[in-house]
Amino acid sequence: MFGLSIHGGAGTLPRAEMAGELEKRYRAGLAQSLAAGFAILEAGGTSLDAVTRAVVLLEDNPLFNAGKGSVFTLEGNNELDAAIMDGATLAAGAVCGVAHIKNPIELARSVMEHSESVMLGGSGAEEFALSRGFELVPRSYFYTPERWKQLERVRHGDANVSAFTISHVGTVGAVALDSQGRLAAATSTGGMTGKRFGRIGDSPIIGAGTYADNRSCAVSATGHGEIFIRTAVAHDICSRIRFGGRSLAQAVREVVLEELPAMRGEGGVIAIDRHGEIAMEFNSEGMFRASRRAGEDPTIAIYKP
Question: In the prediction, which pLDDT does 169 show?
Fold first, then answer.
C-alpha cells in the first residue's frame, strides 16, 4: 500500500466567495499537485520525492500562500518558511525567513541532506543555498495583486479581516507512504499577512507543523501557528499512535477537534500512517485538501462532506 495526501491551507473559506471559477482553479491546482506526487509513488519512487514534488507545484501556484503568491509582511516583503522530514531516519531540514528562494521546500531538503543542521534562517539560509547551487530570485517574483490587497486591508485596519484569517489559508503541505513503507512529510508557507519582527509560525518547526516517523505516521499542519507550536500538534498526533495505541483517525480527531479548540486554535492537519490510512481533519470552515491511495481514485475537497 502507498498513498499521498496534500493540503492547501485551512481556515475561513466563505462558500459564497469560493463558488464558480475560483473553486475550479483551486481544485485544478490540488489535482495537479496530487497527480505529480502520486506518479512518483506509482513508479516506485520515494515518499520524500513525492512530497517534495507535490509541494513544489503548490509553491509555484500563486493561489496558495507558499512560494509565488506568499503573503506580505507589514513592511511589504515576503518571508518564506518550509520543512521536510524523513520518517525512516528522522532526518529533517527546515528554512525560515527566506526572501529569495523560489522553492523553499527544495532548500529545506538540501539542508536535511547536505548540512549538519536542521534549520537555517534568513540570509544564512540563502548563503547556504548559494553554496549548493541554488539561484536566488528577486523579491518581485513572489508578488501577486491579491496578496498585496490583503496587506492593504490589514494596514488600514479593515474591521472585517484579521491577519490570521486571511493568512494560513494557502499554507501547503504533503504527506506520503511509499511502496517500501517509508513515510515523509513536507510543509511550506509564506507566513502571516502583516507579520513583524521576523515572526515564524509552526510550518518549519519540526514537531509542530511537520513530523514523520515510520513507527507511527507523517503529519503536515496548517492553522494558528502559535497554538500549533505550543501544543506540538504534529508530534502529539504521532505520539498518540506510537505510545497511546490510538488509530490515526482517533489521534487526529483528539488533537484537532479537542485539544486545539480548547486553546482557541483553528486549522487542520493531513496525516498518513504506516498502514496507508489517511486522515484529513480540520476545525475551521474549510481546508483545501486531496488524497489518493494505491488502487483508489483521487479525492479532492474544500468543505466538510
Answer: 66
3-class SS letters over the chain: CCEEEEEEEEECCCHHHHCCHHHHHHHHHHHHHHHHHHHHHHCCCCHHHHHHHHHHHHHCCCCCCCCCCCCCCCCCCCCEEEEEEECCCCCEEEEEEECCECCHHHHHHHHHHHCCCCEEEHHHHHHHHHHCCCCECCHHHHCCHHHHHHHHHHHCCCCCCCCCCCCCCCCEEEEEECCCCCEEEEEEECCCCCCCCCCCCCCCCECCCEEECCCCEEEEEEECHHHHHHCCHHHHHHHHHHCCCCCHHHHHHHHHHHHHHHCCCCEEEEEEECCCCEEEEECCCEEEEEEEECCCCCEEECCCC
The one catalytic residue in 46, 52, 73, 171 is 171
Grid coordinates belonging to 244 = 497511546
Q: What percent of the chain has pLDDT over 90?
A: 89
pLDDT of amino acid 13: 72
Q: How far apart are CA 254 and CA 67, in angstroms?
A: 31
Residues 221-225 have a mean pLDDT of: 94
What is the rounded distance in angstroms from the CA atom of residue 236 to the CA atom of residue 219?
A: 10
Structural domains of the chain sorted by starting position, each given as residue range(s) with its CATH number in brackets: 3-301 (3.60.20.30)
Give the chain's radius of gyration (CA, Å): 17
- How many residues appear in the chain? 305
pLDDT tier at 160, thresholds 50, 70, 90: low
For residue 166, with 0-12 CB atoms within 10 Å meaning exposed, 13-18 middle and 19 or more buried, which class applies?
A: buried
pTM for the model stands at 0.96
Of the candidates 242, 240, 241, 244, the residue with the CA atom closest to the CA atom of residue 231:
240
**Catalytic: 187?**
no
Q: How far apart are CA 222 and CA 178, in angstroms?
A: 23
